[in-house]
Amino acid sequence: MRKILVTGGAGYIGSHTVRALLDRGCDVAVADNLSKGYRENVPAGRLHELDINDGAALSELMRQAQFDAVVHFAGYIAVGESMREPGRYFENNVGGSLSLLSAMSEAGIRRIVFSSTAAVYGNPAATPIEEDFPIQPLSPYGESKVIVERMLRWFDEIHGIASVSLRYFNASGADPEGRLGELHDPETHLIPLVLRAAITGEPITIFGNDYDTPDGTCIRDYIHVNDLAQAHILALEYLMAGGATEQFNVGTGAGYSVMDIIRAVEQVTGKKVPYVIGPRRPGDPAALVAASEKLRQTLRWKPEYRDPVTIVEHAWNFARRRGHGR
Length: 326
Description:
The chain has helices at residues 12-23, 55-64, 79-84, 86-107, 140-159, 190-200, 225-240, 258-269, 293-299, 308-321; strands at 3-7, 27-32, 47-49, 69-72, 111-117, 162-168, 170-172, 204-207, 219-220, 222-224, 246-250, 256-257, 275-278, 287-288. By secondary structure, it is α/β, with parallel strands linked by helices.
C-alpha cells in the first residue's frame, strides 16, 4: 500500500484527490492549516493541522510516517489578490514549497506531484497552449508557480527528487453525488459565482466584454475536478514507475467563454443569471485553452467530463446538497 502525503488536502482539488487516492487503496495523510480548506473535507483521522512553512512540524510528520510520495496543493490561488498582495503569495507559495522540499530531502522522500497552473504562460500568442510555449506569467500568482517549478528542477538535479508539475487550466465542477465541492472564502471562481447570482438574484460582474473573443468575454478551458484528481493519480504512478521530472498541461482542449458558462447555469438551474459588465481585471489573458496531448500520450489520461453543462450540473448538485438553490 502506497503512503501519500497530501498538502492542502482539505481544499477543493486536494480533497477530491484525497478521496480518489483512498479509493485506489492508498494510505493518505493530509497536511493543511485550514486557512483555505475545511476540516469536514478530510476523512476522520487523516488530518494533520499544520502550516507547510513550519519545517520542523513537516519533518516530524515525515519522520513518523515513511511516505512514498507527496502531492502538493497547499498554496494561494487568486490572481487578483496576488496583484494586491504579492508578498503574501511569494511567502506562502514559494516559501512553503521550499520548506516542504527541504523536509522531503531530509526525510529521503524522492517523488512529488506539484499543483502548478496555466497562469505560467501569461497571455500566449496562440492557442491551444503547449508545454514548450514561453513562460511569461502576468501575475505574482503565476510567477510564484514558475519559481516553484524551477526549484523542483534544481531539487531533482541536486537531491534526486523527481517531480511532475501539473499546469491546470480552470478546475471546476464537484463530486457528482455532491459530497465535495468548491468552497472558497472569498469565492473567486466563475461557476460558483454564477450559481450564486442565479440563486440570490444579485448580479455577477463580468470583468470585461471587449476581449478579442467571439462574444468579447474571456475564454477558459474548464476541467472537471474529478478528472483533475485522476491526473494526479496517474502522475504518481508515473513517478513510482521511475518517471523523470516533467511538466504537463491538464485541460480538455475546449474553450468556453464567460457567457457560455452563464448560459449553461441558466439551462441547469432554470433561473436567469443577472450580470453587469465591469472593467478588465489586471493579469487576465483573453483565452487560455490547453493542448493536453502530452498528458494523454505519456500518462494515458482521458477526461471523463467535458461538457460544461455536466460540469455545472455537478456543481449545482453540491450547492443544493448544502441547502442552496431551494
